[in-house]
Structures are given as structure tokens and as C-alpha cells.
Specification:
- Chain B: One of its GO terms (biological process) is tetrahydrofolate metabolic process.
- Chain B: InterPro entries: SoxD, SoxD_sf.
- Chain B: It comes from Mesorhizobium alhagi CCNWXJ12-2.
- The structure holds three protein chains of three kinds.
- The radius of gyration of chain A is 21 Å and the shape is globular.
- Chain A is α/β, with parallel strands linked by helices.
- In chain A, α2 packs parallel to α7 (about 185-195) and α3 (about 85-100) packs across α10.
- In chain A, strands 1, 2, 8, 9, 10, 11, 17 and 18 form an eight-stranded mixed sheet that branches. Chain A has an eight-stranded mixed sheet with strand order 5-6-4-13-14-15-12-16.
- In chain A, a hairpin with a 4-residue loop joins β14 (about 285) and β15 (about 290-305).
- Helix content of chain A is about 30%, strand content about 25%.
- Chain B has a single domain (about 1-25, about 35-90), classed as Folate-binding fold.
- Chain B is built from two helices and six strands.
- In chain B, the strands form two sheets. In chain B, strands 3-4-5-6 form a four-stranded antiparallel sheet.
- The longest helix of chain B has 9 residues, at about 35-40.
- Chain C is elongated, with a radius of gyration of 38 Å.
- Chain C is an alpha+beta fold.
- In chain C, β46 and β47 form a beta hairpin.
- In chain C, α10 (about 530-535) packs across α12 (about 565-575) and α19 crosses α20 (about 825-835).
- The longest helix of chain C is centred in the middle third of the chain and has 15 residues, at about 470-485.
- Classes of the chains: A alpha/beta, B alpha+beta, C alpha+beta.
- Chains in contact: A-B, A-C, B-C.
- At the A-B interface, β12 and β15 of A face β3, α1 and β4 of B.
- β16 (about 330-345) of chain A pairs antiparallel with β34 (about 595) of chain C, so a sheet runs across the interface.
Chain lengths: ~425, ~100, ~1000
Amino acid sequence: MAEYSAFSLLKNALTGNRDWKPAWRKPDPKPSYDVIVVGGGGHGLSTAYYLAKEHGITNVAVLEKGWLGSGNVGRNTTIVRSNYLYPQSIRFYEHSMRLWENLSHDLNYNVMFSQRGILNLAHTPAQFDDYARRGNAMRHGGGDAELLDPDQIARLYPGLDVSASARFPVVGGLLQPKAGTARHDAVAWGYARGADRRGVDIIENCEVTGFLRDGDRITGVTTSRGEIRAAKVAVAVAGSTGHVMKLAGIDKLPIESHLLQAFVSESLKPILPGVITWGGGHLYVSQSDKGGLVFGGDLDGYNSYAQRGNLPLVEEVMSELLAMFPAFARVRLLRSWGGVMDMSMDGSPIITTGPLPGMYLNCGWCYGGFKATPASGWCFAHTIARDEPHEINAPFTLDRFHRGILIDEKGQGSTPKLH
Amino acid sequence: MLINCPYCGPRDLSEFSYQGDGNRTRPDPASTDQAEWNAYVYDRTNIAGDHNEIWQHAGGCRAHLRLTRNTLTHKITSVSFARDERHKKPHGHRRSGAHS
Amino acid sequence: MSPRRSQTGGRVDRTRTIRFTFDGRPFTGHAGDTLASALLANGVTLFGRSFKYHRPRGVLTAGVDEPNALVTVLHGEVREPNIPATMLEIYDGLTVVSQNRFPTLAFDFGAANQLGGKLLGAGFYYKTFMGPVFGPLKGTRFWMFCEYFIRRAAGLGRAGIARDPARYERMNAFCDVLVVGSGPAGLVAAKATADNGARVILAELEPKFGGSANWSDETIDGMAAAEWASTMVRDLKARDNVRLLPRTTVWGYYDDNNMAALERVTDHKSAPGKGEPRHRHWSIWAGSVVLATGAFERPLVFPGNDRPGVMLASAAERYANEFGILPGQKVALFVNNDAAYRAASTLRKAGAEITAIVDARDEISAAAQEIAEGAGGELLRGHAVVATEGGKHVSGIKVQKFDLANGALSGEARHLDADCLLVSGGWSPVIHLASQAGLKPEWNETLQAFLPPKPTQNWVGAGAFNGRFTTAEALAEGVAAGLSAAGSIGRAEYAPEVEAPVLDPHPAPVFEIRAKGKAFVDLQHDVTADDVRLAYKEGFVSVEHLKRYTTLGMATDQGKTSNVPGIAIMADAQGRPISDVGTTRFRPPFAPVSLGALAAERYGEVKPERLTPMHDWHVENGATMYAAGLWHRPAIYGLAGETVEQAYVREAKTTREAAGIVDVSTLGKIAVQGPDAADFLDRVYTNMFSTLAVGKARYGLMLREDGIALDDGTTWRLGNDDFLMTTTTANAGKVMQHLEYLLDVVWPELKVQLTSVTDQWAGAAIAGPKAREILASCVTGTAVDNDTLPFMGIVHGEIAGAPVMICRLSFSGEMAFEVYSGAGHGVHVWEALIEAGKPYGMVCYGLEALGTMRIEKGHVTGAEIDGRTTARDLGLDWMLSKKKPFVGSMMMDREGLADVDRVRLVGVIALDNRPLNGGAHIVEDNEAAPRNSIGHITAVCYSPMLGKYIGLALVKGGKKRHGARAFVSDPLRNRFGPVEIVSNHFFDPEGKRMHG
């Protein structure tokens, strides 16, 4: 398949754009594969891509129940960052950041990763110190972080309420310059195209309805398009993990599925240079290349598999956005939507072998799934290929909860709605 | 979402605070079965469908309610006081002398 | 050759002239005009520029579906971008500017993008701008360089940065039936439900109720339709059980029939009336909902279909009949259905010349034929428009023979004169709300439309919404829907008669004319038919991929006119029926909603403020206040010229030397009462409370269920079954909820009542060697000597006549007392204590001094009990009872929590005598690059007692490092240097002073 470039664009424009080929094939499933990846979202696709690229395993099928990227990879607020507290998290998300920085070249697909920075606003000295602790942890872990004072912040974000009379006055902020945003759909499409070019079969409209077993061992799946066998079956279906794992007889997991709403405003001329978050509550906002303000806040706060939220949360999110930017009262909400989050019991993900022989599990992404897409696939591919985790994902086990070896960034314990 | 509090009547979602999976049974305080405790604290059924769950009417009577709510549609099919449910159980804990 | 106001006709008030400006030019219009109608009346046809190619655009519609004519409304510095001119009612002083153009609307440099043509097809940006893989522009740099220009070219209007001074309001409403839409179907539905005694709300997004009745030529019940509508509205208005909401867009369908609506209360006024908000956000709980939201007419897709002067046929009808506007003088039509012929007759009547009716079909009905003949002009059946001519306005069209069966064009292209081209491609029911509360919409081949899905919530539909496009059908359905929503069946007492030409609204299945040139599907986002086909070629065939890849339907009009044509073109490319392709799910909002309205009263008041009873006293007496969660607390009581450090050092020092007083009203307070209260406390605290004597207090620690520390505080036994628990300020709510859950869900058999009494008590802590003397001098009714009031003892007495409860406990490490009075007596008691303290040199101290003294003592607060630390980490293992189980007792010893390598609480002393920072890390080696953190500093101060900068820290190894040297590493604030790790108990470790 042709490389994408300015030259190929020009050549095709001159021939009336007649010769473009599908970004990925639409193959029928084969009877068996070396590896089946259940879930054609960002993580499933990147897993398939890195299985092929890093481990030479190309006899791989990615099974997607609907259209490719219909889950959270296309429903998030597109933020990429690695501003974490714990060394385990920093190492993982920094690895992801390095993959992001070269992703468009790697995939020959412009995922529009734009390193416009993320700024966390602090509103009390205690919060400022807390952010400093995290920023210092990032620096000690090899990442980038800076503290900004209110004057610097006001210069970066005209329209931000930095007045002393604000309900939560801004006392400073933590900036991660390398963070930014990427075009979410392009990440799914780019990985799909990249995996497809290396021989991976991406099979849409193929819902897994059960698992084939030989004793304890998983040997394949039954699907809406027939039985498919594989030596290794990897599950990457964040949002539906509970549902899919029940098909394998795993009835309980340290996960609750929760609803997260996201919002986008009408298109505006550039007004927000980067990603900015509010510390008086929970609100994050950036501006897309098309000009829409893209923002979100807390979870709706109850178990849900419905991709639709409710009104109280909508009102809460708007009030917090306007506490930051009072001028936006006259900006208009264009769209809202809901995604289903795998909320784990410590707010950190799970990338592991098992829990059954022949099975591999990638789940529990909470809010963090999108930014993790490259590293998640990279680590999961390693785990599948080698039958053991890479040292980067070694801490993200399934048994860490019972053992108490938690990676609890927010310190909220086993109350998933608070992570 | 409208939750029909048995004490206050139907009230908006914003008055309630979700308290999680109602399928969990807290082990007896004196239990030393670590697996039982781990399961209580960390493991969830996370049903896609009718879900047994606890809500507190935090902005109202503050009672805890046991709901059956469908996690695919958000339809609520039953609401009762969590306290009543527990009382009906034959093995409900009585005040234990060991702790007083 | 331009639109103008007709001599007569329309329902604008020609006696009232309204003045406004557009791009600085003054214009006039009449009361009842929208910006679109008023500008058309003035001959203006260029309204805006498109998103990508910056092509000139006019006005396509007359309503909420407008994709082109978007403007920015100015109120001084306050800007409101992207408002459709069709929805903007003019008022005196209205100031509007066009957008997405530079330097002017007529001459826009951005139009050069059109030269990019096929280079800028759908998704072109995914294929390029990656840049070099090495050199200074590697990584993301080249893309970010390009992106800078892309972002400036994209976007539509410019938002302001000035605070919006408007007020917004939220309303709750409850009704039996909410009727959405007030066209003929909605009006009779409202009447039928109201007749049945139901409480009805009728919401209409336009200023005027009546919908199509306001601009149709039809007769209902022997009256002109508009007159009939007014009669109906008068009837409804007069009823107690009906509430009419004009200018109200129902935009969201949430769970359990919770409907969200936006009322634009004063957008049409020069100035709001007294007490009026700009917008009102309605949360309506409706027993059932009647969706009578009508249908949108669809344009046809053909080259040049975006040129100003191209307008929907129904919009032209509306401009003529409602506003008295002729959108052109030589009008041509291009249609695929009979119903659109009405527009020809209407415009002819209003005085326009009909130059041609171009119909894609070979066969038309006799009724249509008759209208065409009456309207004059050429009737070209089996023809299609293949181009429009003109610059920034239509001056003519080109037509060719068209074969409906295969879409083929043949014969020579003919030129026809026209300064306005009306188009009609059939109708799409407005099923957005239904889609939010239903299954998948279904394609109907006869109607060539997606019909409403099966409901998943309690609504019924009526009229054009259901694909019943004639007024007679709409009325019949409206009555039936109203009755069904009101819960009664078959009592249709009202059956209005309609006189209207019988015109078949069913369109021929033609959506696109494939000829040379750009043919637009999504006018606002510049998505062309070729873009849709390109998406198909590249495998983006699912409707969701089509939308995401081409951005079709994602503009501010949300594809109201473009979704169906786009899907039809995709279906054609795939060779599949439209029913197989399906449509995307609609999400809230139906139409854009101001963010201010959604925030409502919380705009400018995002969270409540909590103030202690003594708040005003603190402010009046020089306190600098500090936000702590929702509370405001004094940080310092600084004297003139003092730095923060000087102030807290003075306050702390004076407290330790004489006395100090601090407001502790914010501490969480929970009354724990009942025969099982002591048992309950034993279960929730790690230490024992059942052994506590009445009249004594004890320090307690709680864990979470997972074994991590939750909160600490003292609990006072006021009676055998009566305890007063205190929590930290930050965790008051969390602890209350934790306890309530345990009592209500886990141990309902325990007879315990919990009451939050935080706000009922005012608290003052008075500390220092002189504290007892000060108290003795002002307390009556009890002694406060060591025998009556020993350490952790409680007494009741009075201060200045007000009853108080005093407990002798200490956070500062000094001899100290917490004095609680009723909140209403707070200031009175506080002032009495201040007065009593004067002879002893007592100071007021704030949080900074409080923190300083607690750091000197090594006490923990929220900075250490941060949800990640265990009792052992905090050096509180001595509080873990081995005699009883407690919440967390079985979980706290798991391997991860018992790990000896965890961070543990220690003290640190700066050896370089410079201030330390909270959040700084601790490292073992003083290296250049920051790495190998072994912990972090949680709290810092200058200790007046030690004369050093000290801090508390959580460090791996904890006690084992006491006496060891380490280094502070704070690269963020460039603070490095040596520290000594010591015990967290810096000062008076034996506690002699507080027992003293």
C-alpha cells in the first residue's frame, strides 16, 4: 500500500483522487491465528501493531464487535500527558510519551500529536505543594515539569480568571510542556493501517460471544462470524471488560464500569494554547484544531454500560469551566457524549498474562486510556509474545489489589468513582 | 435519573450519592479469612444488566437505599431501604458481645 | 436583481422600525424580523464564509437548521460567536459582525484555499505534515509548525475574553405532558391533553407559536392558518394547567423523561427587563412527552449548490409569507417532489417572476402541474440543475436532461436566468430527541426519510416528526398523541378541517446530481460529494467513520440539512440501500446551548462558601484568609510590615511563651449517640473507646476498609451513650458518609444515631502556658484546675453568660483547651476570650502558626494522611488495638502495606539554614541530575523553638534513617541542599508542656 506524503497527496489530486486504497483491508476471519486480540479500539490495534513490528508475530486477528475505534479511543478528550506521581506510573507513561513523539512517522499517518503542554492550576498553597511533589517526582523519573506563577499563567491564558476575588484564586500551576493533544480517531486508524500493512487481519462487525476452552486453557473464541482458534487470546476491551470476561467465566474483577461524559463547543478561533485543568474541582479543557473547546470533568458516578450520561453532571462541568473562563458563558455547547470507563480499584490499569492459561488481559484504564495507547499496546504485545510482562508493565498486575501493592495516584482506595 | 426514595418520594439523581455494588457482603468483623476480606474490598460483579447497588439519599433523608438498576438502560426496577433488607436476613448480625 | 421587501404581506410590524449594524454598516428592519430577513430585505445576500474553503455563503434556511449564515453578536467587549442569522431577532442597537474572513467579508484571503481543490480533500491532513524524521523539525515539531496556520484558518467566530456580565437562571418544572413543538400537531396535542386536565408545558423554539401555520397558505377551521394558530394559542394561554414557553429549545432527553430546555429570555431585547436573566435553563420532569418537532427540508447536492441565492423552497415560502420578503425577483426552482411547488405559487403571489421549475422527475401530479402552470415559467421535467452561475450571488443556472433511473445527464447544458434558486430534496423528520430516547431510527423507502425509532422512554410522536407531512394528517395525529400522552384514549372531540392543495410530499429518490464542479453536502464544513466518495474508497464506510473522516454533520448545524444526503451518497457508493447504511445516533444537545445557561446560578458562584461564626471578626481584625476546601480560615493575623514568616513565627512564639487563640470551628463534628455508640466506635476506630470514662476525650484513628489511614481526631464521651466525635476539616463529609454506610448497610442492628453538628458548634482553641489562667479568669460555673479539668477532661460552664463546653486537649503541644459554644454565641464567646487574654499578652494565631506548632510536635494532618499512608507509615502503630477487630484491621497487614520499604514519617532539618518547600523530594546522594527519590517533604516551617527550618517528610526506611544526612531535591524550585533526618517529634517529645 502506498506511503502517505505530500507527494502522494499531490499525485492523487492530479488524478482526481481516484487511486486511494482502503486504509485497511476488510478480510474475512481465518479459522485460526497465532494471536487473537479481542477489541478493535486503540489498545487492541496498537497491540496488534507492536506484535507485528516488535515481535514479528503477524498471524494476528483483531476482532471488533462494531466499527473500528467505536469505543473510548473515539470518545475521549484527546489529552496526552505523563504527569504522574508514582515511579511505576511515570515510567509507563513516559515510555508512552516517547512512542507518541514519533508515532506519526512510525505509522506513516499524521495523528496530529501536538505538544502544547498541560497546565494544572493550584488554588491553595497546600495544593501547590501537592503539585510540586508530583512535578518533582516527574523530574526525578526523567520527565519534564515546571511550576508557573499566576503572572506567567495569566500571560499564557488570556481570559482565565486569575483575580484574587475568584472563588478559588489561582496561586500557581504545574506545567508539563511535553504533554498535549492528538487526533483520537487518527490514532485508531493509523494503528489499524499500520497493523494491516504488516499482515494483521482487522475484522470489524465480529462480536465475541464466548471463549473456546480446553480444560482451563483458552483456545479461541466463538464470534458472530463463527469460531476462531488461536494459541493466545488477548483481551483489550476497556469499558466492556466485565462483560467479556464473564464469557470466560471470570465473574468478578477489581473493576467497575463507569460513565464519563465529554463535551465540545462550537468552533472558535484559537483561544486556548494548550490543555488546562482546574484544581477547585475536576475540569480539563483544550481546543481542537477545528476550534472546538473539548472538555470534561468527573464521572457521572454510578455503574453504567450506557454511553449516555445525565444532566446534573453536565451542569457541574459547565459551572467549573466558567469558573476558569467567565467569557465562555457566551460560547455554546455543540455536542456531548458518554464513554464507559473501566474504573479499577486503585485508578491504575492492568496489563498481565492470564487470568486463565492462554489468555492475556489489558484493562482498568480509568481516565487514562487514550494517552496510554502506544505504551499499552507495546507492553501488552511484549507480554503476549514473551508470556511475561516487560519490566515497564510488571507492576500493573491483577493480583496487586489483594496483595496491597497498589498504585493509587489519587489516594482514594477501593472507591472507583473517586479515581 | 429519578430515584424513588421510599421515605422522601421521587427525587433527582443529584440528591443521591452512589455507594457501590450491593452484592458484596461484609465479612463478620471477627472473620480472619483474608480471601473473604479481599473479595469484599476489591472484587465487583460489575453486571451489564440489572445491578443490585446501594445509594445514599445524601441530599435528603440520608438513608441508604438498595436499588435494582439496569446498567445498560439506567431503568430502576426496585428501591428499598438497605437497612430493611438486612434485617430480613436470617443471619443478620446481632450485637456481638465480643466487641463491647 | 436582489432580494427585497415586498410592498405588502408578511407578519412583521411595518410601523415599527428597528436599527442595527452589520459589519459596521447601519441597517433598518421591522419588529418581527430576524437578522436574516432584515438583511435580505436590504438586499444583502452575502452572510459569511465557509469553514475550509472560505467560500461566500448566503442564507439557506429560515430556521435552526441554518448551516451558512453565522454571525457574531457584540455587546461591547463581550462576544457571542456562531449565531445563525435566522435565529437572531433584531432589536434596536443590535451589533453584528461577520466571521471567518480576513480582512472583509467581501474580500477574504482565505478564499485562496479553494485553489487547493482536490489537494485538500477529506482527511488530507492525516496523510501529510508529518515532516522530517531527523533534524530540527523531527518528532512533532514540523506538524506543530503547520498546525499553527491550520488552527488560525479553522475555527469560525472569535470568542471574547471579557467576563460575560449576564445572569443565567435554572428552573425545575414538573408536568404531566411536555409538548415539544407548536406547529399544528403540537398545538392540538397540547389542547387535547389540557382538555383532559393534564398539566401541560408547550415549548416552541421560535418566538411565535404555530410553526408552519405562520407561513403556510392553508386554511384551518375556515381561518387562515396563522389566525387559527393565534386562536389556539389564546385558548391555551387562558388555561391554568398550560404553560407556554416561547423561544425555548428542548435540547436534551435524559433518563426518566428528564428534559433539558433552553429559554432565550432576553436575547431579543435591547436590555433585559428587571430581574430577567439572559437565558433560562429548564430541567423538566415530564410524565410523558409529545414530540411534534416537525421536519427539515433537505437541499439537493449539485455543483455550485452553495452559492448565495440558493435557498430551501420552504424557507423562501416562509420569508415571503411571514416576513414579506422576496428572496429574489427571478426565481427558479429545482425539486424532486410535489410539495415544493407550493413555493412557486407563494412567490408568484408575492410578486416574483418564476423563471423555471426544474424537476428531477418525469412524472408529476396533476395538482403540481396546475400550480406550475399558474406560476408561469418553464416546467422542465426530467431535468436537473448542473451548475449555478454568478460570483457572490446567483445570476443564472445551467440545466441538463436527467434520467432518474440511473442519474445520467444528457444533452446540452442550457442556461436559464435566475437571481434565486429554490431547492427541495424532500423532508427529514426532526428525530433528534427521539434518537436520544429510542432505538435505531429506520429508513422509510416511500418517504425517503429516517423515521423515529421505537421509544425507550415515555414519548409519543405526532405530525411531520412521524413522516405525516400534510397539515391534515398532522392535526389528526396531534390530537391522538395528546390524548395518548394524557393517558386517555379515543375521546377526540376536536377535529379541525384543513383546506390545502393536495400535494404529495414524497420525494423521488434523488439526492445528488453528478456533474463537474464542487457539490456540497455539508455546507458549513465544506464536505463535498467527492469527499464522501473518497471516504468510501479509503474504507471509511460505516456512517460513524464517514462522519469522523470527512467531518460531515459535525459543524454547528450538526448536519440538520446534510446528514441524509451524505448517507445517501455513501449508500450509492457502496451499492447498498440506505436502510443498510443507517444513520448515526444523535446526542444532546439538539441545537447549541450557551454554557452560561447550563451553569445557571453557579456562573460566578461555582461552589458554596463555608464561613465560621467568627469569620467577620477575623477579617476585621487583620486576618489574611486562606481557602481550605469550601472553608475560609485565617492564615495569619499579620502586623503592618510583617512577612508571612515573621507573622507566624511571632504568633507561634507568643503562644508557646504566653498564650494564643485559634478558631477551630471548621473541625468536623459528629454526634454519635445511642446504647451501642461505644461498641460502634470500637468497631470504627483502631483504638478502644468503650473504656473511655464519661467526661473524658480520647484521640482516635480510623482506617479505610482497605487498611489505609482515613482520618484522626478526638472523640469526647459526654454521657454513657453520648459521644461527640471530631474529624479533620477536610474529611468531615467523608467520615460521616463512611460511618453512615456502616450503620445503615452493614450493622443496622446497632442502635446508634449519627448527626452532623459541625455547624452547630463554634470552637476556639486556647493554648499556651497562660491558657489556664486566662480561662480561669473568664469561665464561670466550673473550675478549670488540674483536678477538675485534667488532660483530656471535659467540663461545662459559662463564658460571659453563654454556655460552653471545654475539653483540655492539645494540638500545639502546649497546655491547651478547646472551648465550644453554640454557633450563635461564637463571636460573643470569642470576644470574651480575647478580652480575658489581653492582660496575658495572648495573640490570635492562624493556620500558619497552627501548622508550625504541629510540625514541631510531629502531629499528622491531611498532608500526611493523604489516602496512601498506613498507620505504621505515620508512626501511629501504637494506636492499633490488638484486642478487637476494627475497620481495616484485616487488610492493613497485607504484604504491600506491611512492606518495610514503604515511606515512613520522619522529621527533617535544613542544614543550610534555608527555607524548605512542601513537595520537595528527599534523595540520598547530592547528584546533579534529579533521580532516586526516597521520599518527599509534606509540611515545612521555620521553627521558632529550634531556630531552624524544619519539615515533616515521608521517607523510605523511616526511623532507621534518624540522624542520617540526606538531601532535599526540589528541581522545580531549584532548591537543593543537605538535611538531617530526625524524629518527627522535634519539640517536647515527652509532652511535659501539655500535661504541665
